[in-house]
């Protein structure tokens, strides 16, 4: 019996050493979670009840569990290196089956899908035709197609027209002495071609101005200009006789033979104060075609594409998944897990929602193995192994003594 009991101790110590060795070997593995061996004593119980005192029969492994606390974060220069600050795991597809990991070292494959080193695709929420997030799980893909141009439709102006400026003779675009001020901006047609829009301000009478709009040298304002009237507070009172601050130009066909277009000018922020002319803001809503130059991921998992025309486009959203019982997950290698009955049903959502953590782009979560702790545990396991081996040696000596009694 002594040999059998000591053997269970040796087996338990060996398993503990194997667990510790695996932890130490993976101390630099991205997203690795350390394991811990748990033990339970063994007693023989007959159908007639246990004797008292009962002699134990050794030890057994009651389980090997993983500790899912967060590892240290290392910062990188790769925008597809992602770490989770808090609860949650990345969800990937492995040949049609979902797997989960904390290792966020991702890259793009030749089709633009976001994958891990094993080629498993990262999943999340896709976008619709309006570039809005739809909560439908799908493989995440970076679309390298050019961003289509958008024709300008509105131009917002914010500036001050000096009330001290004089009333001028009739406007003539070729004579700078016939207009008080001018400003310009670039607008775009449906093909993405840039056009220069010039707006000239002509003072007709006290508190009354006319604006003349030209695009690439062609006038698109109404005949005689668009009338702009200020009230006694220096704010816009009416445009072309209508309250408010908007006017729409005549429809014109761009020189590029793009679709006919018109521009709506928003002048609500124009003022007429006793101050020098100054342009505070000129904003229009069109842009040329753009080529994808870069992309990034925000803490909420939104993937933004950055284009050469200065525009940004939502390309998808990375989601996170958690489980009621993380200890119930089954390890499958490559720092990945699959769900089981014991883990419970997965709960997937946006980073930062409910109990889920947020993402940190350009960083990786390292192993949560503490080398010092493992070395101390290894010494304890080694001592346990040696002690049980000594029990076997002592038992062997006692057996030899008993055998020698008969000699």
List the helices and strands and how they pair.
Blueprint: H1 2-25, E1 35-43, E2 56-66, E3 73-75, E4 82-85, E5 89-94, E6 97-101, E7 107-108, E8 114-115, E9 121-127, E10 133-139, E11 154-160, E12 181-188, E13 194-205, E14 208-215, E15 218-219, E16 226-230, E17 236-239, E18 242-243, E19 246-248, E20 264-266, E21 278-284, E22 292-297, E23 302-307, E24 312-318, E25 320-322, E26 330-333, E27 336-338, E28 347-349, E29 358-361, E30 363-365, H2 371-405
Parallel strand pairs: 11-20
Antiparallel strand pairs: 1-2, 3-30, 4-29, 5-6, 5-9, 5-25, 6-27, 7-8, 9-10, 9-24, 11-21, 12-13, 13-14, 14-15, 14-16, 16-17, 17-18, 19-20, 22-23, 23-24, 25-28, 26-27
Helix pairs in contact: 1-2
Structural account:
The mean pLDDT is 91. A hairpin with a 4-residue loop joins strand 23 and strand 24. The protein starts with a helix and ends with a helix. With 407 residues, the protein is mainly β. It is rod-shaped. The protein has two helices and 30 strands. The strands form seven sheets. Strands 5, 6, 9, 10, 22, 23, 24, 25, 26, 27 and 28 form an eleven-stranded antiparallel sheet that branches. Strands 12, 13, 14, 15, 16, 17 and 18 form a seven-stranded antiparallel sheet that branches. Helix 1 (2-25) packs antiparallel against helix 2 (371-405). The chain has three domains: 2-69 and 370-405, no CATH class; 73-146 and 313-365, no CATH class; 154-284, Flagellar hook protein FlgE (Tick-borne Encephalitis virus Glycoprotein, domain 1, Sandwich). It has helices at 2-25, 371-405; strands spanning 35-43, 56-66, 73-75, 82-85, 89-94, 97-101, 107-108, 114-115, 121-127, 133-139, 154-160, 181-188, 194-205, 208-215, 218-219, 226-230, 236-239, 242-243, 246-248, 264-266, 278-284, 292-297, 302-307, 312-318, 320-322, 330-333, 336-338, 347-349, 358-361, 363-365.
């Amino acid at each position: 019996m002594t040999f059998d009991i000591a053997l269970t101790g040796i087996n338990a110590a060996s398993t503990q050493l194997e667990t510790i060795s695996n932890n130490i070997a993976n101390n630099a593995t991205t997203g690795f979670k350390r394991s811990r061996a748990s033990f339970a004593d063994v007693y023989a119980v007959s159908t007639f009840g246990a004797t008292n005192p009962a002699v134990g029969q050794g030890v057994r492994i009651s389980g090997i569990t993983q500790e899912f606390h967060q590892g240290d974060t290392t910062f990188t220069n790769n925008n597809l290196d992602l770490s989770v600050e808090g609860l949650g795991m990345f969800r990937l597809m492995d040949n049609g089956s979902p797997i989960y990991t904390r290792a966020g070292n991702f890259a793009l494959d030749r089709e633009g899908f976001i994958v891990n080193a094993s080629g498993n695709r990262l999943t999340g929420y896709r976008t619709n035709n309006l570039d809005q997030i739809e909560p439908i799980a799908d493989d995440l893909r970076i679309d390298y197609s050019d961003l289509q141009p958008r024709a300008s439709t509105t131009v917002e102006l914010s500036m001050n027209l000096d009330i001290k400026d004089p009333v001028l003779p009739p406007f003539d675009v070729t004579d700078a002495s016939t207009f008080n001020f001018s400003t310009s901006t670039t607008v775009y047609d449906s093909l993405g071609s840039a056009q220069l829009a010039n707006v000239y301000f002509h003072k007709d009478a006290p508190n009354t101005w006319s604006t003349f709009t030209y695009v690439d040298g062609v006038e698109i304002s109404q005949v005689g200009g668009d009338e702009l009237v200020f009230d006694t507070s220096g704010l816009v009172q009416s445009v072309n006789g209508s309250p408010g601050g908007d006017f729409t130009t005549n429809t014109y066909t761009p020189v590029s033979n793009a679709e006919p277009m018109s521009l709506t000018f928003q002048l609500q922020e124009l003022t007429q104060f006793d101050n020098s002319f100054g342009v505070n803001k000129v904003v229009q809503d069109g842009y040329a075609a753009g080529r994808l130059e870069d992309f990034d991921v925000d803490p909420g998992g939104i993937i933004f594409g950055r284009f050469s025309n200065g525009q940004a486009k939502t390309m998808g959203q990375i989601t996170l998944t958690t489980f009621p019982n993380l200890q119930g997950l089954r390890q499958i290698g490559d720092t990945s897990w699959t769900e089981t009955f014991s883990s419970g049903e997965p709960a997937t959502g946006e980073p930062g929602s409910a109990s889920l953590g947020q993402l940190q782009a350009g960083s990786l979560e390292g192993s949560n193995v503490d080398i010092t702790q493992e070395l101390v545990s290894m010494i304890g396991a080694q001592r346990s192994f040696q002690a049980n081996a000594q029990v076997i040696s002592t038992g062997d000596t006692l057996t030899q003594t008993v055998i020698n009694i008969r000699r």
